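ESCALATION

Customer reports they have been waiting on this structure for their group meeting. Please prioritize. Original submission:
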Amino acid sequence: MAHYYADTTLGLVAPGTVMRVLLASSYAPTQALPARLVARNGAWQSPLFPGQLFPSDSYIQMVFGEAVPGVPTSATWLANVHSSAGLRLASAAATDVAVQGADATTLFEMKWRDSLRKYYLYRGDMRLLVTAANGIQAINIVEIDDYLKGVVPAEIVPLWHVESLRAQAVAARGYAVTSQRPGKLYDVVPTSADQVYGGVNIEHPRTSAAVMATDDVVVLYQGKPVKTFFHTTSGGHTENNEYAFVPSSGKPTSTPLGYLRGRPDLAPNGIAYDSKAPEYAWSSGQFTMAQLQSMLAKDARTNAGSNMAVAFNRGVSGRVYQVVIDGSKGMLKVSGGIFKGVYNKNKLSGASLSSTMFYLTPAN
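Update from on-call: job pushed to the front of the queue and completed.
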């Protein structure tokens, strides 16, 4: 941790931190896949139905425009509770429903998240809201270590060395606590846009043990928790934050952060630790400069015209943070990420660019 996050220490965050994970942003229920939560392994309750405790395997379902005796016809969305056999137990008009397990053993089954639907079982509580687009938003409200139990095995191989699992748990916890958004409906999404979160389905005993062994531990810089970004493959060197996160022009605008300095990622023998990773080394298909010019001309951001010359500005790792394209139409400057995206979309053959650590080299 000290190597990747310079001038940092380990410290503790307040216990009992809660994460709010957006599982579905505006889901339109269908008959085949309704907006349903099923309680597993325990009873559950909801403030919408005060004083009522519903049994394990019963479910709550959000439906639109259904006529129910005793419910005003002006109601458009209903929260209906059914037994495991389908018998209606309760019904109420609602556009914001909180669902809570009776105790920690209760899990909620949800098969309609926006992506990665193979993950469908969750600890903690749930909140269902009707959106302005008349869809259903689902938010999992879960204690941070239960959240991390569903994150760490998605971000690292659970059978790796126990200390690597603990390091990943600390990094994931720091990323989580610094991603909280007070005043917003949710904190994070369950994909690589934040951290992949698989809930109970992906939990593994070894990574769960690593989470608990590092309970409340995060990385501190100048006494405060910091967003501990992590990577799959570094290519032998990590990057300074001001070069890693640039706008579309590629011009660095971020304030350099003392704890996010590029570091060599090499073993004592000089070989990169990740040298055997699938995407450590790769190459694109061959092309002429005229063909590259034709590829770049297909996007207004990179179309500098004919007689093109290309220059690359690189960070401390060797990654391209800015590409300067000069041609008959003038000079254009774009980020390395935009250049990579345009190339991958319009490439003639061969593999895509896997990262911005690329070099143009003459073909043999």
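Sent to customer with the following note: Residues 23-142 form one domain.
Escalation resolved.
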